[in-house]
Amino acid sequence: MRYYIVLILSFFMLSAANANAQAKLSVKWEELTANDFRAAIAKSQGTCLLPFGILEKHGPHLPLGTDLLNVRYVAEHAAQEEYAVVFPEYFAGQIFEAMHQPGTIAYSPELQLMLLQETTDEMARNGCKKVVIVNGHGGNEHLLPYFAQAQLYKPHDYVVYVQWGHEATRKVGAEKKGPDWHAGESETSNTLVTHPNLVHMDRAKEESGADQGRVKLPESVYTGIWWYARFPNHYSGDGSTATKEQGEADVQGWINTVVHAIKAVKADDESLKLQKQFFEQSQHPLDTPQ
Ligand SMILES: [Zn+2]
Question: What is the DSSP letter of 79?
Fold first, then answer.
């Protein structure tokens, strides 16, 4: 009898310990044990985030990893609010336009696609049947939709979602003139929130982030040198007017957007179903009803 009581008691204690561990599951892939990883995939319903950053100059005053640091801050906070497993640091993106600046890591186009494919394949093999690429780098704006579209090339048992952009936030102070695209007021404000110790506000004016407009072409014509033609210092805008207040509003808006995206992806049962149907039909297109 005593033996059974001990057994029952230890069962309850173990369950409580388990529930505790479950409640405290880290969102970070690299922090989970193998067994906790299994629990994390179940808890996330197979929804995993791949925050995508880059290593490139960010004006004279922000760190090379600004996009990586900011997108990870946002993804990790969002995943804590709506549970998802967050893949480790990833920065193999498109950044050829900054190869003339120190510290840029620009892999070949072939490797970018191959590495991203093998990464999402490996994530899916480990149970991430919904992979959400949370983009933090403007230079990926062609790469990522192309990658997502290329998932239809051959059958996959998982879906790639690309999450991009966030709610517009209230600007603090007067409207500024010109673009604010890279290491300018907005991005500097955000970094003042995510990694204040890495921002060198005193250096923000050391270079110009003004648009130099050196190539004149109509909007309907695209050329790869456009960015260098306009912003050769790899700086667009003016970081010196950044404030923590503006960053707090913007970062919170970004987190909210990613939380909303995680919820929507978890609720989406159609994409995988339709993908399966599509792959099945694409094996024999002549049988597709016309
Ligand atoms: Zn950036």
Answer: H
**Cβ atoms 182, 231 nearer than 8 A:** yes
Mean pLDDT confidence for 268-273: 98
Phi, psi dihedrals of residue 51, rounded to the nearest 5°: -70, 130
User: The whole model's pTM is what?
Assistant: 0.91
Please determine, for residue 11, whether its predicted confidence score (pLDDT) is greater than 80: no
Report how many helices (DSSP H) and strands (DSSP E) the chain contains, helices first: 9, 4
* Cα–Cα dist 142/97, whole Å: 14
Q: 248 CB contacts (<8 Å, ≥6 apart)?
A: 193
Backbone φ and ψ for 163, nearest 5 degrees, come out as -105, 135
Predicted pLDDT of residue 191: 98
Residue 213 phi, psi dihedral angles, 5° rounding: 40, 50
Q: Is 95:112 a contact under the CB 8 Å cutoff?
A: no
**What separation in Å is there between the alpha carbon of 137 and the centre of ligand 1?**
6
Q: Cα–Cα distance between 275 and 107 in angstroms, integer?
A: 30
Query: CA 173, 179, 183 angle in degrees (round to 5)?
Result: 80
Residue with tokens 């290593």: 55
Q: Ligand 1 center to residue 58 CA distance, Å?
A: 6
3-class secondary structure, 114: helix
261 Cα: distance to centroid of ligand 1 (angstroms):
21
Ligand 1 center from residue 195 Cα (angstroms)? 13
